[in-house]
Design brief:
By secondary structure, the chain is of the alpha/beta class. The chain contains 15 helices and 15 strands. It has two domains: about 150 residues, Aspartate Aminotransferase, domain 1 (Alpha-Beta Complex); about 270 residues, 3-Layer(aba) Sandwich (Aspartate Aminotransferase, domain 2), CATH 3.40.640. The structure holds pyridoxal-5'-phosphate (PLP). The site of pyridoxal-5'-phosphate has 14 residues, from helix 5. Keywords: Aminotransferase, Pyridoxal phosphate, Pyruvate, Transferase.
Length: about 450
Protein backbone atom coordinates (compact mmCIF):
# COMPACT_ATOMS: atom_id res chain seq x y z
CA UNK A 1 0.00 0.00 0.00
CA UNK A 2 1.47 3.42 -0.87
CA UNK A 3 2.45 5.30 2.25
CA UNK A 4 0.11 8.21 1.66
CA UNK A 5 -3.04 6.17 1.19
CA UNK A 6 -5.64 6.76 3.85
CA UNK A 7 -8.03 3.81 3.93
CA UNK A 8 -11.64 4.91 3.66
CA UNK A 9 -13.76 3.94 6.69
CA UNK A 10 -15.60 1.26 4.72
CA UNK A 11 -12.26 -0.55 4.17
CA UNK A 12 -11.94 -1.24 7.86
CA UNK A 13 -14.74 -3.59 8.78
CA UNK A 14 -13.14 -7.00 8.15
CA UNK A 15 -10.27 -6.65 10.64
CA UNK A 16 -11.63 -7.31 14.16
CA UNK A 17 -8.97 -5.43 16.06
CA UNK A 18 -7.45 -6.83 19.28
CA UNK A 19 -7.79 -4.97 22.61
CA UNK A 20 -9.41 -2.08 20.71
CA UNK A 21 -12.63 -0.11 20.86
CA UNK A 22 -13.36 -1.19 17.26
CA UNK A 23 -16.35 1.07 16.61
CA UNK A 24 -14.61 4.13 18.00
CA UNK A 25 -11.43 3.40 16.05
CA UNK A 26 -13.21 2.82 12.78
CA UNK A 27 -15.04 6.13 12.95
CA UNK A 28 -11.77 8.03 13.54
CA UNK A 29 -8.87 5.73 12.58
CA UNK A 30 -5.35 6.35 13.82
CA UNK A 31 -3.20 4.79 11.13
CA UNK A 32 0.56 4.30 11.16
CA UNK A 33 2.15 3.74 7.77
CA UNK A 34 5.93 3.79 8.35
CA UNK A 35 8.50 3.90 11.15
CA UNK A 36 12.14 4.90 11.47
CA UNK A 37 14.30 5.25 14.58
CA UNK A 38 12.23 7.08 17.25
CA UNK A 39 9.29 8.02 15.03
CA UNK A 40 6.22 6.63 13.36
CA UNK A 41 4.77 8.26 10.28
CA UNK A 42 1.00 8.68 10.50
CA UNK A 43 -1.22 8.27 7.43
CA UNK A 44 -1.43 12.04 7.04
CA UNK A 45 2.37 12.28 6.91
CA UNK A 46 2.88 13.56 10.48
CA UNK A 47 5.87 12.32 12.49
CA UNK A 48 4.82 10.77 15.80
CA UNK A 49 7.40 10.32 18.58
CA UNK A 50 7.19 6.74 19.84
CA UNK A 51 6.72 6.90 23.61
CA UNK A 52 5.85 3.21 23.93
CA UNK A 53 8.38 1.30 21.79
CA UNK A 54 5.41 0.15 19.72
CA UNK A 55 3.81 -2.08 22.33
CA UNK A 56 6.79 -2.30 24.73
CA UNK A 57 8.76 -4.16 22.08
CA UNK A 58 10.88 -2.01 19.72
CA UNK A 59 13.67 -1.45 22.24
CA UNK A 60 16.25 -0.54 19.57
CA UNK A 61 13.90 1.87 17.79
CA UNK A 62 12.50 1.29 14.33
CA UNK A 63 13.91 0.24 10.99
CA UNK A 64 17.22 -1.13 12.27
CA UNK A 65 19.06 -2.27 9.12
CA UNK A 66 20.89 -5.22 10.71
CA UNK A 67 17.59 -6.78 11.74
CA UNK A 68 15.72 -6.21 8.48
CA UNK A 69 18.75 -7.50 6.53
CA UNK A 70 18.96 -10.66 8.67
CA UNK A 71 15.28 -11.36 8.07
CA UNK A 72 15.43 -10.93 4.32
CA UNK A 73 18.66 -12.93 4.00
CA UNK A 74 17.25 -15.83 6.01
CA UNK A 75 13.98 -15.74 4.07
CA UNK A 76 16.02 -16.24 0.91
CA UNK A 77 18.26 -18.96 2.42
CA UNK A 78 16.10 -21.14 4.66
CA UNK A 79 12.51 -19.93 4.65
CA UNK A 80 11.22 -22.54 7.07
CA UNK A 81 12.55 -25.61 8.82
CA UNK A 82 10.72 -27.74 11.38
CA UNK A 83 12.04 -27.88 14.93
CA UNK A 84 10.30 -31.17 15.74
CA UNK A 85 12.95 -33.93 15.40
CA UNK A 86 14.93 -31.62 13.05
CA UNK A 87 17.11 -28.60 13.63
CA UNK A 88 18.80 -25.65 11.97
CA UNK A 89 21.89 -23.85 13.27
CA UNK A 90 20.41 -20.39 13.80
CA UNK A 91 17.96 -21.48 16.52
CA UNK A 92 20.80 -23.11 18.49
CA UNK A 93 22.99 -20.04 18.05
CA UNK A 94 20.28 -17.68 19.33
CA UNK A 95 19.68 -19.92 22.37
CA UNK A 96 23.38 -19.75 23.21
CA UNK A 97 23.40 -15.96 22.85
CA UNK A 98 20.31 -15.65 25.04
CA UNK A 99 21.74 -17.68 27.91
CA UNK A 100 24.90 -15.56 27.64
CA UNK A 101 23.03 -12.36 28.56
CA UNK A 102 20.69 -14.04 31.10
CA UNK A 103 21.56 -14.82 34.73
CA UNK A 104 24.04 -17.75 34.77
CA UNK A 105 21.43 -20.04 36.36
CA UNK A 106 19.34 -19.87 33.15
CA UNK A 107 20.82 -22.56 30.92
CA UNK A 108 18.16 -23.64 28.42
CA UNK A 109 15.75 -22.00 25.99
CA UNK A 110 12.37 -23.22 24.73
CA UNK A 111 10.97 -21.15 21.85
CA UNK A 112 7.43 -19.86 21.39
CA UNK A 113 5.87 -17.22 19.12
CA UNK A 114 4.57 -14.74 21.66
CA UNK A 115 4.53 -13.78 25.30
CA UNK A 116 1.21 -15.56 25.85
CA UNK A 117 2.64 -18.80 24.50
CA UNK A 118 5.77 -18.32 26.58
CA UNK A 119 3.62 -18.02 29.72
CA UNK A 120 1.55 -21.10 28.95
CA UNK A 121 4.74 -22.99 28.11
CA UNK A 122 6.36 -21.93 31.39
CA UNK A 123 3.31 -23.08 33.39
CA UNK A 124 3.26 -26.42 31.57
CA UNK A 125 6.99 -26.93 32.14
CA UNK A 126 6.50 -26.20 35.85
CA UNK A 127 3.70 -28.76 36.17
CA UNK A 128 5.52 -31.40 34.14
CA UNK A 129 8.77 -30.80 36.04
CA UNK A 130 7.19 -31.71 39.36
CA UNK A 131 5.53 -34.73 37.83
CA UNK A 132 8.80 -35.88 36.23
CA UNK A 133 10.38 -35.77 39.69
CA UNK A 134 7.62 -37.81 41.27
CA UNK A 135 5.85 -34.83 42.88
CA UNK A 136 2.73 -34.99 40.71
CA UNK A 137 0.58 -33.61 43.55
CA UNK A 138 2.06 -30.17 42.88
CA UNK A 139 -0.60 -28.89 40.46
CA UNK A 140 -1.62 -25.56 41.93
CA UNK A 141 -0.49 -22.34 40.22
CA UNK A 142 -0.24 -18.98 41.98
CA UNK A 143 -0.52 -15.67 40.14
CA UNK A 144 -1.11 -12.16 41.40
CA UNK A 145 -3.94 -9.65 41.36
CA UNK A 146 -3.57 -7.17 38.50
CA UNK A 147 -0.97 -9.41 36.84
CA UNK A 148 -0.89 -9.62 33.04
CA UNK A 149 0.42 -12.81 31.54
CA UNK A 150 -1.04 -12.66 28.05
CA UNK A 151 -4.28 -14.12 26.81
CA UNK A 152 -3.93 -17.90 26.70
CA UNK A 153 -6.12 -19.83 29.12
CA UNK A 154 -3.12 -20.41 31.39
CA UNK A 155 -2.13 -16.75 31.25
CA UNK A 156 -5.59 -15.36 32.01
CA UNK A 157 -6.05 -17.92 34.80
CA UNK A 158 -2.95 -16.78 36.68
CA UNK A 159 -3.45 -13.19 35.50
CA UNK A 160 -5.37 -10.77 37.64
CA UNK A 161 -7.01 -8.21 35.36
CA UNK A 162 -10.73 -8.74 35.69
CA UNK A 163 -11.80 -7.63 32.19
CA UNK A 164 -9.39 -10.15 30.67
CA UNK A 165 -10.93 -12.99 32.70
CA UNK A 166 -14.59 -12.52 33.38
CA UNK A 167 -15.96 -13.26 29.90
CA UNK A 168 -14.15 -16.55 29.48
CA UNK A 169 -15.70 -19.13 31.73
CA UNK A 170 -14.16 -21.00 34.61
CA UNK A 171 -10.51 -20.86 33.49
CA UNK A 172 -7.92 -23.26 34.98
CA UNK A 173 -8.88 -24.87 38.25
CA UNK A 174 -6.54 -24.75 41.23
CA UNK A 175 -5.25 -21.21 40.84
CA UNK A 176 -4.77 -18.69 43.64
CA UNK A 177 -3.65 -15.08 43.56
CA UNK A 178 -1.29 -13.07 45.72
CA UNK A 179 -2.32 -9.48 46.45
CA UNK A 180 -1.03 -6.81 44.07
CA UNK A 181 1.68 -4.48 45.30
CA UNK A 182 0.10 -1.12 44.61
CA UNK A 183 -0.21 0.70 47.93
CA UNK A 184 -1.54 4.27 48.37
CA UNK A 185 1.34 5.13 50.73
CA UNK A 186 3.78 4.59 47.84
CA UNK A 187 2.25 7.38 45.72
CA UNK A 188 4.71 9.64 43.87
CA UNK A 189 7.62 7.34 44.70
CA UNK A 190 10.70 7.70 42.54
CA UNK A 191 12.00 4.23 41.72
CA UNK A 192 11.32 1.22 43.92
CA UNK A 193 8.69 1.87 46.60
CA UNK A 194 9.51 1.55 50.31
CA UNK A 195 6.34 -0.09 51.57
CA UNK A 196 4.90 -3.52 50.90
CA UNK A 197 7.64 -6.20 51.06
CA UNK A 198 5.39 -8.05 53.53
CA UNK A 199 2.76 -8.57 50.79
CA UNK A 200 4.91 -11.50 49.65
CA UNK A 201 4.14 -13.21 52.98
CA UNK A 202 0.64 -13.88 51.70
CA UNK A 203 2.23 -16.85 49.96
CA UNK A 204 2.73 -18.41 53.40
CA UNK A 205 -1.03 -18.09 53.98
CA UNK A 206 -1.73 -19.89 50.67
CA UNK A 207 0.82 -22.57 51.58
CA UNK A 208 -0.81 -23.02 54.99
CA UNK A 209 -4.23 -23.29 53.36
CA UNK A 210 -3.41 -25.83 50.65
CA UNK A 211 -0.12 -27.43 51.67
CA UNK A 212 3.15 -26.73 49.86
CA UNK A 213 3.04 -30.17 48.29
CA UNK A 214 0.07 -29.08 46.13
CA UNK A 215 1.72 -25.94 44.75
CA UNK A 216 3.75 -26.09 41.53
CA UNK A 217 4.72 -22.50 40.83
CA UNK A 218 4.30 -18.81 41.51
CA UNK A 219 4.33 -16.52 38.47
CA UNK A 220 4.79 -12.76 38.68
CA UNK A 221 5.97 -9.93 36.50
CA UNK A 222 9.02 -8.62 38.37
CA UNK A 223 7.63 -5.20 37.43
CA UNK A 224 4.00 -5.30 36.33
CA UNK A 225 3.74 -3.37 33.06
CA UNK A 226 0.45 -3.83 31.24
CA UNK A 227 -1.72 -3.27 34.30
CA UNK A 228 -0.27 0.21 34.57
CA UNK A 229 3.33 -0.02 35.80
CA UNK A 230 3.27 -1.37 39.36
CA UNK A 231 6.72 -1.60 40.88
CA UNK A 232 7.84 -4.27 43.34
CA UNK A 233 8.37 -2.81 46.83
CA UNK A 234 11.92 -3.02 48.18
CA UNK A 235 12.54 -6.52 49.49
CA UNK A 236 9.35 -7.99 47.99
CA UNK A 237 10.90 -10.13 45.24
CA UNK A 238 13.65 -11.29 47.60
CA UNK A 239 10.97 -12.43 50.07
CA UNK A 240 9.02 -14.22 47.34
CA UNK A 241 12.20 -16.02 46.31
CA UNK A 242 12.90 -17.03 49.89
CA UNK A 243 9.43 -18.43 50.51
CA UNK A 244 9.18 -20.29 47.18
CA UNK A 245 12.61 -21.85 47.74
CA UNK A 246 11.74 -22.87 51.28
CA UNK A 247 8.66 -24.75 50.05
CA UNK A 248 10.05 -26.27 46.84
CA UNK A 249 7.76 -24.05 44.73
CA UNK A 250 9.10 -22.85 41.39
CA UNK A 251 9.35 -19.09 40.85
CA UNK A 252 8.56 -17.87 37.33
CA UNK A 253 9.40 -14.31 36.28
CA UNK A 254 7.36 -13.12 33.34
CA UNK A 255 9.91 -10.84 31.69
CA UNK A 256 7.98 -10.18 28.50
CA UNK A 257 8.17 -6.41 29.14
CA UNK A 258 11.17 -6.19 31.47
CA UNK A 259 13.47 -8.30 29.28
CA UNK A 260 16.12 -6.72 27.05
CA UNK A 261 17.18 -3.63 28.92
CA UNK A 262 13.95 -1.88 29.95
CA UNK A 263 15.12 -1.41 33.57
CA UNK A 264 18.81 -0.92 32.78
CA UNK A 265 19.95 -4.55 32.94
CA UNK A 266 19.41 -7.27 30.33
CA UNK A 267 16.64 -8.77 32.49
CA UNK A 268 14.81 -7.60 35.61
CA UNK A 269 16.20 -10.65 37.43
CA UNK A 270 19.65 -9.07 37.21
CA UNK A 271 18.36 -5.60 38.00
CA UNK A 272 16.75 -6.78 41.25
CA UNK A 273 19.38 -9.43 41.99
CA UNK A 274 16.68 -12.11 42.33
CA UNK A 275 16.93 -15.16 40.11
CA UNK A 276 13.82 -17.23 39.38
CA UNK A 277 13.70 -20.86 38.20
CA UNK A 278 12.01 -19.99 34.91
CA UNK A 279 11.84 -16.78 32.89
CA UNK A 280 9.64 -15.85 29.96
CA UNK A 281 10.46 -13.29 27.30
CA UNK A 282 9.13 -12.11 23.90
CA UNK A 283 8.60 -8.59 22.46
CA UNK A 284 12.15 -7.16 22.61
CA UNK A 285 13.60 -10.56 21.71
CA UNK A 286 13.28 -9.59 18.03
CA UNK A 287 12.86 -5.85 18.61
CA UNK A 288 9.16 -6.50 17.93
CA UNK A 289 9.92 -6.97 14.25
CA UNK A 290 8.73 -10.55 13.95
CA UNK A 291 6.83 -12.74 16.42
CA UNK A 292 8.96 -14.75 18.81
CA UNK A 293 8.93 -15.65 22.49
CA UNK A 294 11.06 -17.85 24.69
CA UNK A 295 11.14 -19.61 28.03
CA UNK A 296 14.47 -19.81 29.82
CA UNK A 297 14.93 -22.48 32.47
CA UNK A 298 17.51 -23.53 34.98
CA UNK A 299 19.66 -26.59 34.30
CA UNK A 300 17.89 -28.49 37.10
CA UNK A 301 14.50 -28.07 35.47
CA UNK A 302 15.69 -29.10 32.03
CA UNK A 303 17.69 -32.03 33.37
CA UNK A 304 14.70 -33.43 35.27
CA UNK A 305 13.14 -34.19 31.88
CA UNK A 306 16.24 -35.83 30.40
CA UNK A 307 15.59 -39.33 31.65
CA UNK A 308 14.04 -42.54 30.34
CA UNK A 309 14.80 -44.11 26.96
CA UNK A 310 16.74 -41.71 24.73
CA UNK A 311 14.53 -42.13 21.66
CA UNK A 312 11.44 -40.90 23.53
CA UNK A 313 10.32 -37.26 23.36
CA UNK A 314 10.92 -35.69 26.77
CA UNK A 315 8.39 -32.82 26.62
CA UNK A 316 5.22 -33.18 24.57
CA UNK A 317 4.94 -29.49 23.79
CA UNK A 318 5.99 -27.10 21.02
CA UNK A 319 4.75 -24.93 18.16
CA UNK A 320 5.08 -25.24 14.39
CA UNK A 321 7.06 -22.00 14.46
CA UNK A 322 9.15 -22.67 17.60
CA UNK A 323 12.63 -21.40 16.75
CA UNK A 324 11.80 -20.84 13.09
CA UNK A 325 14.76 -19.64 11.01
CA UNK A 326 13.55 -16.12 10.23
CA UNK A 327 12.63 -15.24 13.83
CA UNK A 328 15.88 -16.81 15.05
CA UNK A 329 17.90 -14.73 12.60
CA UNK A 330 15.99 -11.62 13.70
CA UNK A 331 16.72 -12.52 17.34
CA UNK A 332 20.46 -12.79 16.75
CA UNK A 333 20.58 -9.53 14.79
CA UNK A 334 18.54 -7.86 17.55
CA UNK A 335 20.87 -9.03 20.32
CA UNK A 336 23.87 -7.86 18.27
CA UNK A 337 22.22 -4.47 17.82
CA UNK A 338 21.47 -4.19 21.54
CA UNK A 339 25.03 -5.13 22.48
CA UNK A 340 26.71 -2.94 19.86
CA UNK A 341 24.64 0.10 20.89
CA UNK A 342 24.89 -0.61 24.63
CA UNK A 343 21.09 -0.80 24.87
CA UNK A 344 20.91 -3.56 27.47
CA UNK A 345 22.20 -1.09 30.06
CA UNK A 346 21.45 2.31 28.48
CA UNK A 347 18.23 2.78 30.48
CA UNK A 348 20.34 2.94 33.64
CA UNK A 349 22.19 6.02 32.39
CA UNK A 350 19.00 7.75 31.20
CA UNK A 351 16.91 6.83 34.24
CA UNK A 352 17.81 9.98 36.22
CA UNK A 353 16.82 12.36 33.43
CA UNK A 354 13.72 10.30 32.70
CA UNK A 355 12.62 10.37 36.34
CA UNK A 356 13.06 14.12 36.67
CA UNK A 357 11.22 14.91 33.44
CA UNK A 358 8.37 12.52 34.30
CA UNK A 359 7.86 13.77 37.85
CA UNK A 360 7.79 17.36 36.59
CA UNK A 361 4.23 16.51 35.48
CA UNK A 362 3.12 15.86 39.08
CA UNK A 363 1.23 19.15 39.44
CA UNK A 364 -0.68 18.84 36.18
CA UNK A 365 -4.49 18.59 36.23
CA UNK A 366 -5.95 15.32 37.54
CA UNK A 367 -2.55 13.63 38.14
CA UNK A 368 -2.83 11.48 41.28
CA UNK A 369 0.31 9.36 41.02
CA UNK A 370 3.55 9.10 39.07
CA UNK A 371 5.90 6.10 39.19
CA UNK A 372 9.04 5.17 37.32
CA UNK A 373 11.97 2.82 36.99
CA UNK A 374 14.60 2.46 34.27
CA UNK A 375 12.96 3.73 31.08
CA UNK A 376 9.42 3.06 32.14
CA UNK A 377 6.95 5.42 33.67
CA UNK A 378 3.31 5.80 34.57
CA UNK A 379 1.06 8.77 35.22
CA UNK A 380 -2.19 7.91 36.93
CA UNK A 381 -5.12 10.26 36.45
CA UNK A 382 -8.21 10.66 38.62
CA UNK A 383 -11.06 8.92 36.82
CA UNK A 384 -14.04 10.90 35.57
CA UNK A 385 -16.98 9.92 37.76
CA UNK A 386 -19.10 7.32 36.02
CA UNK A 387 -16.69 6.98 33.08
CA UNK A 388 -13.57 5.13 34.21
CA UNK A 389 -10.80 5.11 31.61
CA UNK A 390 -12.24 8.00 29.62
CA UNK A 391 -9.93 10.69 30.93
CA UNK A 392 -6.80 8.76 29.96
CA UNK A 393 -8.25 7.57 26.66
CA UNK A 394 -9.08 11.14 25.67
CA UNK A 395 -5.51 12.11 26.59
CA UNK A 396 -4.20 9.28 24.41
CA UNK A 397 -6.17 10.55 21.39
CA UNK A 398 -5.07 14.15 21.99
CA UNK A 399 -1.47 12.98 22.43
CA UNK A 400 -1.52 11.22 19.08
CA UNK A 401 -2.88 14.36 17.46
CA UNK A 402 -0.11 16.33 19.18
CA UNK A 403 2.57 14.00 17.77
CA UNK A 404 3.37 11.50 20.55
CA UNK A 405 2.38 7.87 20.98
CA UNK A 406 1.52 6.95 24.57
CA UNK A 407 -0.36 3.95 25.96
CA UNK A 408 -3.25 3.90 28.40
CA UNK A 409 -4.66 1.22 30.68
CA UNK A 410 -7.73 2.37 32.56
CA UNK A 411 -6.81 5.86 33.73
CA UNK A 412 -3.09 5.17 33.77
CA UNK A 413 -0.78 6.52 31.07
CA UNK A 414 2.19 4.21 30.55
CA UNK A 415 5.41 5.30 28.86
CA UNK A 416 8.19 2.99 27.67
CA UNK A 417 10.06 4.54 24.74
CA UNK A 418 12.69 2.79 22.66
CA UNK A 419 15.92 2.60 24.64
CA UNK A 420 17.54 4.70 21.90
CA UNK A 421 15.68 7.84 23.00
CA UNK A 422 17.81 10.97 23.55
CA UNK A 423 17.50 13.32 26.52
CA UNK A 424 16.11 15.97 24.17
CA UNK A 425 13.45 13.53 22.96
CA UNK A 426 12.56 12.66 26.58
CA UNK A 427 12.01 16.39 27.16
CA UNK A 428 9.91 16.66 24.00
CA UNK A 429 7.80 13.67 25.04
CA UNK A 430 7.14 15.08 28.52
CA UNK A 431 6.58 18.68 27.31
CA UNK A 432 4.01 17.52 24.77
CA UNK A 433 2.36 15.25 27.31
CA UNK A 434 2.28 18.16 29.76
CA UNK A 435 0.38 20.27 27.21
CA UNK A 436 -1.98 17.38 26.55
CA UNK A 437 -2.71 17.01 30.27
CA UNK A 438 -3.25 20.75 30.70
CA UNK A 439 -5.80 20.69 27.88
CA UNK A 440 -7.74 17.85 29.61
C1 LIG B 1 4.20 -9.63 31.21
C2 LIG B 1 3.54 -10.05 29.92
N1 LIG B 1 3.35 -11.36 29.69
C3 LIG B 1 2.78 -11.79 28.55
C4 LIG B 1 2.38 -10.89 27.59
C5 LIG B 1 1.72 -11.39 26.34
O1 LIG B 1 2.54 -11.26 25.25
P1 LIG B 1 1.91 -11.41 23.78
O2 LIG B 1 1.01 -10.25 23.57
O3 LIG B 1 3.14 -11.41 22.91
O4 LIG B 1 1.20 -12.71 23.74
C6 LIG B 1 2.57 -9.53 27.79
C7 LIG B 1 2.14 -8.55 26.78
O5 LIG B 1 2.08 -7.36 27.00
C8 LIG B 1 3.15 -9.09 29.00
O6 LIG B 1 3.32 -7.79 29.26
Amino acid sequence: MPLDRKPAPNDLSAFWMPFTANRQFKTAPRMLVAAQDMHYTAADGRQVLDGTAGLWCCNAGHGRPRITRAISEMAGTLDYAPSFQMGHPTAFELANRLVEIAPPEMEHVFYTNSGSEAVDTALKIALAYHRARGEGSRTRLIGRERGYHGVGFGGISVGGIVSNRRMFGTLLAGVDHLPHTHLPENRMTRGQPQHGAELADDLERIVALHGADTIAAVIVEPMAGSTGVLLPPKGYLERLREITRKHGILLIFDEVITGFGRLGSPFAAQHFGVVPDIMTCAKGLTNGVIPMGAVLTSGAIHDAFMQGPEHVIELFHGYTYSGNPISSAAGIATLETYIEDGLLTRAASLAGHWEKALHALADHPHVIDIRNMGLIGAIELAPIEGAPGKRAFDAFVRAFEAGILIRVTGDIIALSPPLTISEAQIDELMDTLGQVLKAG
